[in-house]
Amino acid sequence: MDCVNTNFEECYESIKKHLPACSFVAMDLELTGIKTSDAESYIDTPAERYNKLKSAASKYRIIQIGISLFTDIGNNQFEARTYNAYVFPRENYNFSPQIVMDASAIEFNMKHKMNFQKWIYEGVPYIQYHTAKKKRDEINTEEEKKEESNDIVLTQEDDITKRDAFLKKLAEFLASGSAEPLCIEEQSAFMRRYMYEYLQKNHPKLVAFSEFKAEGSKEKVMKIYNFTEEQRKEYEEKQRKVKLDKLDAQIGFTRVLELLIQERKPLVGHNCYFDLLFIMHSFIENLPNRFVDFKKRLNNFFPTIYDTKHIAHRPPFASIFQDNPSSLEAILEKIKEHKDKSLFSNHELVYPEGFKKYDLFNPSDDAYHEAGFDSLLTGYVYLKMFHQLEPEHKGTVVNTVNVLRSHFLLSLDKEDDVLTRPNPIFVFCKQETDDTKFAQSDLLDHFKELSFEFEDLRVNTFYQNRRAIAFVKLETANEEKMSAFMKKCQLLKETGVMIETITDFAKRRTQESEAAAAEGKTYENKRGGRRG
Questions:
Q1: What 3-state class would DSSP assign to 502?
Q2: Alpha helices, DSSP H only, in 283-435?
Q3: Region of residue 411 (phi > 0: left; psi between -120 and 50: alpha; otherwise: beta)
Q4: Whether 38 contacts 279, CB under 8 Å
Q5: Cα(28)–Cα(252) distance, rounded to whole angstroms?
Q6: Can you state the angle between helices 8-18 and 254-263, rounded to 10 degrees?
Q7: What pTM did the predictor assign?
Q8: Which of 297, 388, 451, 514: CA 20 to 30 A from 379?
Q9: Is residue 307 within a helix (H) or strand (E), and if so which, with residue range?
């Protein structure tokens, strides 16, 4: 189901109806850009990588968001309902969002026939979750705020004359007991405000509002009603509903996020670190400065998250995807190849009426790479893989998200992030030098002889804060081999080289970068040579 501004209420009611019974939700985004302010590097600590990705998520915008609801109906079948929504931020509450586009991202979307005109003209608006909550609270507590108004003091003779005339008419109106409204015309906005505040303070049971005298007229008339208590409550509830309905239209797609947060269903994405950042920043709240705060906040809103990119690299799938692409398309191709085998589960999808737009095995050109199509495919590969994971690995994939070009996986419910493989060794030269090439080549020379003895030794060097750093790891390291390697490395300490695990390195580096930031300094990273 395509969701745009004109049919959003229908989409919203459908999601609201089917979400409580669904087993999990898959999602995908199409974006105006993902280019980071600084290049991503294997030397990044988890906190540094977060700051780089945060810069992109705070800069670019969502074009489409795909939401797919998967409901277990028995016999290894799941109903799949997919909503492909265009979302476009509108000016609200004196805030006008900027729309920034990256040429490469736009070219990618153009290649896959993205309808940019529909995005701009028909996109569903949205505001942040906390802004929506604040505005709802303001409407629901308007009666309390009325009592906080300050008295307006009239000083101009003309205003005082108008006030006296108003008070005389009001007294006559109250004395008459008329059910018809008292109409006050030809008053300035300032005098209308005075009259409203006077009535709130001295006649709180009266109901007053202004409206245009006629359609197309610029002149307003103020109407004052002397309702009964029951009529007044009915009127105020009606007005409150009108304001809330208008606010809901401004909140737009964020209402769907409110449902997801409320229902706390497992959320499934593919290589979804960026998607999670964009969802947080666009629909919920500005991304926090500290990485640890981001993880806590995200886990608070979405306590169960799965990344199919990470699942594809766990047994029994690791042997297939370790050295092969693990994109959604690549995983689907492997599912097709193994259709009659036991590697993937035998779960299949059923599409209810109104949700048959996408054919995963024969996608049309205009559907392929839509956010809705990719969210459906993400949920499908999750079904085919998760149920086939070895029991000891099922617990390791929850709240663990893949990070591109990193030695770490993002662990959303733990303080320390997970390593993609057993600890490689970090070696960095203590001596500080301004000669980048010399420092890195000198460090590489330390490992020349070791590379003959340990053929699977891999070394990457970097230059940071006038220090040469080397990542050193063994691709096939058993305990005996690692012990022998470590003994050899101990000799390097005599040359002024310090050795530490990647985890310790990341913790120390984070502390140093936080201290540098406090002093207004920055880290400098330069990529160096590679051996092995």
A1: helix
A2: 291-301, 308-311, 318-321, 328-337, 371-386, 391-397
A3: beta
A4: no
A5: 18
A6: 0
A7: 0.83
A8: 297
A9: strand 305-307
Other beta carbons less than 10 A from residue 472's beta carbon: 24
What 8-state DSSP symbol labels residue 138?
A: H
Q: Count the Cβ atoms, other than its own, within 10 Å of residue 320.
A: 17
3-state SS class at 98: coil
3-state secondary structure 15-80: HHHHHHHCCEEEEEEEECCCCCCCCCCCCCCHHHHHHHHHHHHCCCCEEEEEEEEEEEEECCEEEE
Query: CA–CA separation, 10 vs 398, rounded Å?
Result: 32
pLDDT score at 424: 67
Number of H helices, E strands in the chain: 21, 18
Whether residue 292 contacts residue 417, with contact meaning beta carbons closer than 8 Å, is answered with no
Q: Which amino acid is at 527?
A: R
Q: What is the dihedral of CA 160, 165, 167, 172, to 10 degrees?
A: 170
Phi first, then psi: what are they for 68, rounded to 5°?
A: -120, 125
Q: What span, in angstroms and rounded, lies between the C-alpha atoms of 418 and 409?
A: 5
By C-alpha distance, which of 80, 69, 25 is closest to 347?
Answer: 80
Q: Are 137 and 191 in contact (CB under 8 A)?
A: no
d(CA 15, CA 5): 15
Cα–Cα separations (whole angstroms), residue 231 to 139, 141, 222, 362, 423: 20, 20, 19, 60, 72
157 exposure class (CB count in 10 Å sphere: 0-12, 13-18, 19+): exposed
Residue whose tokens read 């809705």: 372
d(CA 64, CA 365): 17
In order of 209, 378, 396, 513, the CA distances from 317 in angstroms are 67, 16, 14, 37
Q: How far apart are CA 467 and CA 430, in angstroms?
A: 7
CA distance linking residue 129 with residue 358, whole number of Å: 30
Helix, strand, coil shares of the chain as percentages rounded to 5? 45, 20, 35
Structure-block tokens of residue 304: 């169960």
- End-to-end CA separation in angstroms for the chain: 50
Q: Which residues of the chain have pLDDT under 70?
A: 93-94, 142-150, 340, 365-366, 422-425, 427-443, 463-466, 477, 495, 516-532
For position 422, what pLDDT does the model report?
64
Pairing of strands 418-419, 62-74: unpaired
Cα distance between residue 337 and residue 360, in whole Å? 15
CA 480: distance to chain centroid? 45
Which of these, 270, 4, 272, lies nearest to 115 by C-alpha position? 4
How many residues are given for the chain?
532
Cα(312)–Cα(464) distance, integer angstroms: 33
